[in-house]
Amino acid sequence: MKHLSDYLYVQSIAKCSMEELGAFIKEGITEREIVIKAEDILSENGVERFWYYNIGAFVQVGTRTNISESGRVYRPSEQKVGKNDIVTVDLSPEINAFWGDYARTFIVIDGSVVDEKQLLCQPNFIADEFGHGIHTEKQLHRMFKAYIEPEKTFEEVYLYLNKAIQQLGYVNLDFAGNLGHTIEFHKEERSYFERGNTRKIGEAELFTFEPHIKHVNGAYGFKREDIYYFWNGELKVL
Description:
Structural class: alpha+beta
Organism: Paenibacillus chungangensis
Number of helices: 4
Oligomer: single chain
Largest sheet: 4 strands, antiparallel
CATH architecture: Alpha-Beta Complex
């Protein structure tokens, strides 16, 4: 694949920046402050611009994690991170026209971000919902990797995973109903994992899987996004 190293580079910056951001997020920090910090970290690491409507970090805190909206209208709020809370972050760095795209869900317990594995050790009923959401996101990515093939269409993958979301007791929150998109040089050219898209996966070089979900009886939304590609017929994570 042409330019694979360029995409690996910018995505690696997104991953490192997300890790650094986890040390910044704590009780009392606002959504807007998290956005500013995230974009500063990306810029300090060489990111030139942000491909998603010039938004470097799409951040939501607390029950605002249920909101799904286009970057055209997104504005970070003054919502503060609570003592036991949840924060979703979606990074959109760009270097030399090559995109990164990476989203994670941070869990805050007793005022600080905890590692996903630590959730299992928290004697806190709030952590139960948080942990279940994180576990479900990981499960969906495993199902995605097990199901997807170059000859399958974007629609087939969408229908399979959207059904899985429902069977797991969750709701697809995406405002457009999709579960991911291709990586392009212009955002208007993206193909989506959505109903009606009969394009074969193998025709795309890079694509994201990014379910935005909420448990049917839950109060919070969850995100987890990675970029995938096929290399000699084998699915890889960027």
